[in-house]
Amino acid sequence: MTASDDPIWFRELKPALLERWRRPASMGVDLEPSDVADEFAEWVDDDSRWAALGRGDRDWRSLLGDVVASWSLLGAHLERVIAAAPHVAALERVLAAQRVKEGLHRRAISDAAAHLAGGLVQPGTLLAAFEDLLEAAEQHVRPGSPAPAVRWHLALLASAGERHGHDWSVVADRLRNAVEWFPDTPFESRLDTARTALQADARQGRSVVWLCVDHASASEPSSDPRVELFDGDWLLAVLGVWTGQRAGVPPELAADPEVLARAWPRLHPEQPVQEQIPVVFARVDLGDGPTAGARDRARDTLELLLARASVLQGGTNWRISGKVIHFVDGDAVFESSGPVGDPDIYTRLSRTDVIRDPTAETIKRELPRLRAHLPVTDRRLRAALQLNQWLHDARRTGPPARLVLSSRIIEQCARWADLSPPAFVADNLAWSWCWAQVADELERAGREAVDNMRGHSGATTTPEERAAFLKVSAEIFRPDRDSWRPRVYPWKVLERLSWLIARFPPDGWIGDWLIDLSARTADGSTVFSWLKRLESEFTTQHARAVRTRNVIVHGGPLLLPTAHSIVGFQDEVAAHALESTMDALLRETTVVEHFAEQRRRYNDALETLRLGGDPAKALRTPLGD
Predict the structure, then answer these.
(1) What is the value of pTM for the model shown?
(2) How far is the C-alpha of 429 from the C-alpha of 414, rounded, in Å?
């Protein structure tokens, strides 16, 4: 058997499996088991979480629900190694109780947390994760990108590797080498070679990580050998005329004086140093230990130091770039290269960037709504516009700050609607979010289908195909068709779905997508079921966002992976709240009346769908589009 004879499922999996630079992650609603287990363990060890058990019952239930959902999705091989099922069952019994009570449930919760925290560290979990991935991939027969189950098991493989001290790049390299180096070997033999490779020990050594900092200056190296800060131009100049050991030059650079200049050349090397914005090169010595994750640990160390300095001095201009060189025992094992020292590195735009920026189009669309209110004198409208500005600015900050601000926006909009935040979220925002997910998928599918139709190019297709393309484009695309990313009427895509399906082979990725979408929108009841599933996802993610926000605001164990996983969702929900509030403030009605009417429209549409009504008409009704 040769490489061309590999099973179809493996050829579909191979690109995702071997992207060593892109750590795979679950794309669904469930957190990775290792991440949720870390958060779970910290909650159990935090006495303040137990002290707040009464008023924090919902947060505990949200967390336990995440733990149960995540750890229930282990593959059969991982489950045999970890034996998580009894502890998952114990947590399900806790969730079934009317309230989580310390006296009744702490022992079961603590035992589960302790067991799951060490789950992926157990011997054999990396190999078991690989076997589960292979089985999931064998069951994946649809073309295109890997199915959610395959992505999930890819993420578990990466996570198990990390718990055993392997970066994803190391795991990917071992698999790639095993599969690609022996193309004439039977496929099953190559899988056995991959299994053997995955059982090799994690690399150990002394890690020294170099990071580049833009908009930064250091007159002389810092004295602490664990974190040294060098003037970048001084170091490049010394290494550029290297004649032998020079005081102040670290040993790994002395052994290879060309590595830094080769990886990090100045953006304008011909420009005099005194006319360029200074840069700093930071050397972080992590000492001996596992090399996996060393680059992240080094960056985290430097970021903490910068944050501390910023607090003490009232801000900093320093910005850590993405450039990094990782040495292990003196040898460079990883380089991310590129020119350094762009004076406008964070704001510089190309002509294409400017042309594609849709700001002008957005303003033109908004002016008819805003014109009667300019200049803005209404207090609440001004406050709503300021919240828009806050949300825009917040997107430049880290996930914890964004979560707090987005929650603040939702709470303010709920107050204007004369509703409690939970009621506002459940009765208004949940359904606006669900509707948006349906509309977004229809838009994306419609855009891809029309843009890939025969007839897109008049020079290479028949007049009939070109006429069909132009006709459906005029129906589906909004008037700003000339924009680089034209907007689409989602409900017109739904009306044209059967027609579009007939234009693509069913085994291609677009045809497969359209057929799947058609099945979910076949009639009112199927759309109703889709919306109810989305509502369940919304409830899970919003509970997680509230829980994480409460930890940030009130104190407690904050796990950044959880904040990262939920910040985009909460940002989107806050944007929905603001958009609806702006609609109310710009119409001749009160905010309370507007949201009451919005709830009625959503409820009426849901009832129509539940009874099997026309999906295109019912979905369009709440949005008026």
Answers:
(1) 0.77
(2) 10
